[in-house]
C-alpha cells in the first residue's frame, strides 16, 4: 500500500537529520518540498537523488487532489518543509487531512522541531503548555492577547526577528513587565542564544542587541506571576 511520509528536517544543524529520514527520502517516488532550492541543498548534502515537487502554502490547495490520485495509484510520497516538522506552522495539514479522508496511510517520522528544545531550554514549567505558533498580524490579535493574558500554562510562540521588539512591548501591555519569558534564538546553530528574564529585562536586552535569526519565545503562564518577583535574567550564548 502506498503511503505519505511526513519527514522532519534539521532546523539548523545538519547532524540532526536521522538515518531513517535519509532512507525514506531515498526510497520514496517523490518528495514534496516547501522550497525546492532550500531542500535541494539538504538532499545534495545527503546524496539523495529523489525527484522533488514544489508544495507550499500558495499552491497546496490546488495540488492536493492530484497528489491523492498519485498516492492511490501506488506512489509513495514524502513531505518535507524548509526546516523542522511539516504542518507545524508549515504546509502539511491539508494533505494529511486529505489522506486520512481518502484512506491513504500517513506516517510521521519523529525528528527536529523548534518549539520542544525552546520549551525545555526556557526553564519555565513544561508539564503543561500550549503552542500558539505565529500570532495574527492584525485581525484577531487583540482578542488573542486578551485570552492569552489569562492563560495559566506556559505559552510558546514563533516570532520573526523584525517583529520581536514590538511583540515584547505588546507582552508588557497584556502580560505585565514582570512576566517571566525566554527568547530562544538560532536553536541548534552556531550562535544559539537563550535570553531569560522578565519581559522588561529581555526587551531591554534586545533594544541594545538587534535580534537576528529564527526565534521562539516561551512565556510563563499567569500563575507564575504570583510567585516572588525575583529576576534571574540570563543572556546565554
From TrEMBL:
Q: Which UniProt keywords apply?
A: Cytoplasm, Methyltransferase, rRNA processing, S-adenosyl-L-methionine, Transferase
Q: Which Pfam families does this entry report, sorted A to Z?
A: TP_methylase
Question: What does the record give as the organism's lineage?
Answer: Bacteria, Pseudomonadati, Bacteroidota, Flavobacteriia, Flavobacteriales
Where does it live in the cell?
Answer: Cytoplasm
Q: What family is this? A: Belongs to the methyltransferase superfamily. RsmI family.
Main enzyme class: transferase
EC number(s): the record gives 2.1.1.198
Protein name stated in the entry? Ribosomal RNA small subunit methyltransferase I
List the catalytic activities from the record.
cytidine(1402) in 16S rRNA + S-adenosyl-L-methionine = 2'-O-methylcytidine(1402) in 16S rRNA + S-adenosyl-L-homocysteine + H(+)
List the InterPro entries.
4pyrrol_Mease, 4pyrrol_Methylase_sf, 4pyrrole_Mease_sub1, 4pyrrole_Mease_sub2, rRNA_ssu_MeTfrase_I, SAM_MeTrfase_RsmI_CS
Start and end residues of each Tetrapyrrole methylase domain: 3-202
UniProt function note: Catalyzes the 2'-O-methylation of the ribose of cytidine 1402 (C1402) in 16S rRNA.
Amino acid at each position: 500500500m502506498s503511503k505519505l511520509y511526513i519527514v522532519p528536517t534539521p532546523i539548523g544543524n545538519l547532524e540532526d537529520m536521522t538515518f531513517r529520514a535519509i532512507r525514506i527520502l531515498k526510497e520514496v517516488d517523490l518528495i514534496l518540498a516547501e522550497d525546492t532550492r532550500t531542500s535541494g541543498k539538504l538532499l545534495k548534502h545527503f546524496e539523495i537523488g529523489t525527484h522533488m515537487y514544489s508544495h507550499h502554502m500558495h499552491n497546496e490547495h490546488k495540488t492536493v487532489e492530484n497528489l491523492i490520485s498519485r498516492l492511490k495509484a501506488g506512489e509513495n510520497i514524502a513531505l518535507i518543509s524548509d526546516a523542522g516538522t511539516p504542518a507545524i506552522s508549515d504546509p502539511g495539514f491539508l494533505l494529511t487531512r486529505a489522506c486520512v479522508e481518502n484512506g491513504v496511510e500517513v506516517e510521521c517520522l519523529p525528528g527536529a522541531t523548534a518549539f520542544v528544545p525552546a520549551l525545555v531550554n526556557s526553564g519555565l514549567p513544561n508539564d503543561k503548555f500550549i503552542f500558539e505558533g505565529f500570532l495574527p498580524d492584525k485581525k484577531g490579535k487583540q482578542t488573542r492577547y486578551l485570552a492569552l493574558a489569562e492563560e495559566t500554562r506556559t505559552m510558546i510562540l514563533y516570532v520573526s526577528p523584525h517583529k520581536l521588539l514590538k511583540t515584547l512591548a505588546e507582552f508588557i501591555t497584556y502580560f505585565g513587565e514582570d512576566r517571566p519569558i525566554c527568547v530562544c534564538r538560532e536553536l541548534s546553530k552556531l550562535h544559539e542564544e537563550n535570553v531569560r528574564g522578565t519581559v522588561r529585562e529581555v526587551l531591554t536586552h534586545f533594544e541594545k542587541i538587534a535580534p537576528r535569526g529564527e526565534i521562539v519565545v516561551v512565556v510563563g503562564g499567569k500563575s507564575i506571576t504570583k510567585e516572588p518577583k525575583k529576576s534571574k535574567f540570563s543572556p546565554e550564548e
